[in-house]
Amino acid sequence: MPEIRNYTVNFGPQHPAAHGVLRLVLEMDGEVIQRADPHVGLLHRGTEKLAESKPYNQSIPYMDRLDYVSMMCNEHSYVLALEKLMGIEVPLRAQYIRVMFDEITRILNHMMWLGTHALDIGAMAVFLYCFREREDLMDMYEAVSGARMHAAYYRPGGVYRDLPDRMPQYVDSKYRDADDLKFLNKARSGSLLDFIEDFTNRFPTYVDEYETLLTNNRIWKQRTVDIGVVSPDRALQMGFTGAMLRGSGIEWDLRKKQPYEVYDRLEFDIPVGVNGDTYDRYLVRVEELRQSNRIIKQCIEWLRNNPGSVILDDHKLTPPPREVMKGDMEALIHHFKLFTEGYSLPAGEVYTAIEHPKGEFGIYLISDGANKPYRLKIRAPSFIHMAAMNEMATGHMLADVTALIGSIDVVFGDVDR
Amino acid sequence: MSDYYTTLAAEARDQLAGLIESVDVSFNELNIVVSKDKLLDTCLALRDQKAFACEQLIDLTGVDYSEFGEGKWQGLRFAVVYHLLSIRNNHRIRLTVFVDGEPPLVDSVVDIWSSANWYEREAFDLFGIIFEGHPDLRRILTDYGFVGHPFRKDFPLTGNVEMRYDPEKQRVVYQPVSIEPRISQPRVIRDDNRYLGTMQQEEEQDDA
After folding, report:
1. Domains in chain B: boundaries
2. Which one, of A417, A409, A415, A386, lies nearest residue A111 by Cα?
């Protein structure tokens, strides 16, 4: 009789369902997983080491490239850490803009998650719908910062500039006719805020569309219900945060519990799961989409009625406006010093965390009083969720691994840093 | 909120007396320093005592203090920093343990918080800190067969080896780096009088 042995399957690093460069070594017993060993680090760029070699403000663009589907949220945590060390308070309007863009980013991230998660489990259409919405969201990014993805929009002391009064429009081209152009520019005739408001009015119906396709779909439920069940105790032990923790039934959201910026002035609810399986995490995130939409609406309302400055006027920390610089020697000196040497922060260590779309995103910053961080540690949510892969996958079938990867909402820029 | 952490610090001094070396509150965060041999007991106390109830190890990281303050550092070279979060009490605690030696040795906290597993592998990989009692201490972020610990301050930013495809040998080869280290902005420590106010206040608080 031949000896029956476990065999090893190598999943990735180039696998369409791996969401990047994940190499997963799976020990199989038939089709059942005995052990999953994720090999990460294939995208390790040494962001933390690079940040140690640069003045503080030059590391903001690196933050965009960590979790490259929720760019502004990464920046947010970093600038909060700097502001905490500086001991400054940013203008209220900047705080509202930040919160609004955090929530736009959350939708952006969850759209990516939902589209690819559904695609991995076999639902093609959701992916196309989600990317349709991402297009609008990235246009918002572009209108406000000039970049569709890597915005570098949040700066210590506020945000780079105020919201534009005019939304960029599509122009005539030989590839589209007049009707198309009119359709594309329909929502873009006013300011950026008008465009965002139009989106928030349309968005709930879009979420309904996804839910019609998935929530009661028999195949979707077969692939997600009771897959990767994590009990509340284990979720805490394994360091879960964000939707992963809430999916397991623990009501914990930094926006509510340790509010930063203006979250304590806004109304929203925290969805909580019951069973801690992939399906519950899906429901939690879909509800987060609706809540984010609600927050954005409140921010628009406030921002319309309260014009004002969006960045501090302290030119030791924030660059002076171009026009002033042309005529004022002092402003020119400030500008020169700021972009050559940067600013020195007082010695000390701070940890700031925000509710990132994927979980708690933290920045641990040690300063020794120099113009560069002494040590910057990025607490990336995907990293620690990925670490739970072994425990979640053991005992499941090979095909469930893709469902789990989707459920973790993993992005490798975030895991490897 | 600051009052909360001052109270918590007092509580820590009281309940963890004999275990910890120092407690202080700065930037509205609670820092606890513990010696290497009391680490596990302190962690257990912080997790299980009702006043702290830190169910979660949010972050664990290594720090290499060898170049801190441009050579003014007097203490031990390495530190392992634990960030703990209590869901029940809604607070955070930072626990620091300083270590020295080559390789630096610290007890693993995997049995206390499972999330320490990958974090300790990461700190081992990047700083070469050995966590005794860790079930599977392998490199995690660097390449297979990587030599050195890249986040130590004596490891150059450019690295030591570079990789390229050699068309003659028809394979990837490793060779010493060909790029020169370059510093575009020098590191400087400047006293900024804007922070003097806050620093004086803190000194007065310390005196009082």
Report:
1. 3-148
2. A409
Residue A56 one-letter amino acid: Y
Asked if A343 lies within 8 A of B118 by C-beta distance, the reply is: no
Measure Cα distances from A129 to A114, A132, A209, A274, B159 in Å.
Answer: 10, 5, 9, 28, 44
- Partners of A13 on chain B (C-beta within 8 Å) are none
- Classify each residue of A148-179 as buried b or exposed e, where b means 16 or more C-beta atoms within 10 Å of its C-beta: bebbbbbbbbbbbebbeeebeeeeeeeeeeee
- Is A351 in contact with B83 (Cβ distance < 8 A)? yes
Tens digit of each residue's pLDDT, chain A (417 residues): 666 677 888 887 877 777 778 888 888 888 889 888 998 888 888 899 999 998 998 899 999 888 888 899 999 999 999 999 888 889 999 999 999 999 999 999 999 999 999 988 888 889 999 998 999 999 999 999 888 889 889 999 889 888 998 888 888 888 888 888 888 888 888 889 999 999 999 999 999 989 998 888 898 998 899 888 999 999 998 989 988 999 898 989 999 888 888 998 999 999 999 988 999 999 999 999 999 999 999 999 999 998 888 888 888 888 888 888 888 899 999 899 888 888 888 888 999 999 999 989 999 999 988 889 999 999 999 999 998 889 888 888 888 888 888 888 888 888 888
C-alpha of A119 from chain center: 20
User: Which of A23, A42, A237 should one mutate to test binding to chain B, selecting the residue with the greatest count of B CBs within 10 A?
Assistant: A237
Is the omega angle on the peptide bond into residue A13 within 30 degrees of 0, that is, cis? yes
Report whether pLDDT(B40) > 80: yes
B189-206 pLDDT, tens digit each: 887 666 655 555 555 555
Interatomic CA distance for residues A132 and B6, integer angstroms: 50
Query: Positive or negative CA dihedral for A356, A358, A363, A364?
Result: positive
DSSP element (H, E) containing B30: strand B29-34
Helix axes A278-305, A192-214, angle to 10 degrees: 160
DSSP B17: T
* Contact across the interface for B192 and A364, Cβ inside 8 Å: no
Task: Give the residue among A173, A155, A73, A250 at the shortest CA–CA distance from B90.
Answer: A250
Burial per residue of A108-143, b for 16 or more beta-carbon CB atoms within 10 angstroms, e otherwise: bbbbbbbbbbbbbbebeebbebbeebbebbbbbbeb
Separation in Å, CA B146 to CA A45, A212, A249, B33, B169: 14, 49, 41, 32, 22
Would the CB atoms of B87 and A252 count as touching at under 8 Å? yes
> What residues in B contact A410, CB-CB < 8 Å?
none
For the four alpha carbons of A341, A342, A345 and A350, in that order, the dihedral sign comes to: negative
Compute the distance between CA of residue A265 and CA of residue A99 in angstroms, rounded to an integer: 11
Cα-based angle A175, A176, A177 (whole degrees, multiple of 5): 130
Secondary structure of residue A170 in the 3-state scheme: coil
Q: Supply the CATH classification number for the domain B3-148.
A: 3.30.460.80
Complex-level ipTM: 0.86
Asked if the Cβ–Cβ distance from B55 to A54 is below 8 Å, we say: no
pLDDT band at B171 (very low <50, low <70, confident <90, very high): very high
Own/partner long-range contacts of B125-129 (Cβ < 8 Å, ≥24 apart): B125/B149, B126/B62, B126/B150, B126/B151, B126/B152, B127/B62, B127/B63, B127/B64, B127/B78, B127/B151, B127/B152, B128/B103, B128/B104, B128/B152, B129/B62, B129/B78, B129/B80, B129/B99, B129/B103, B129/B104, B129/B105
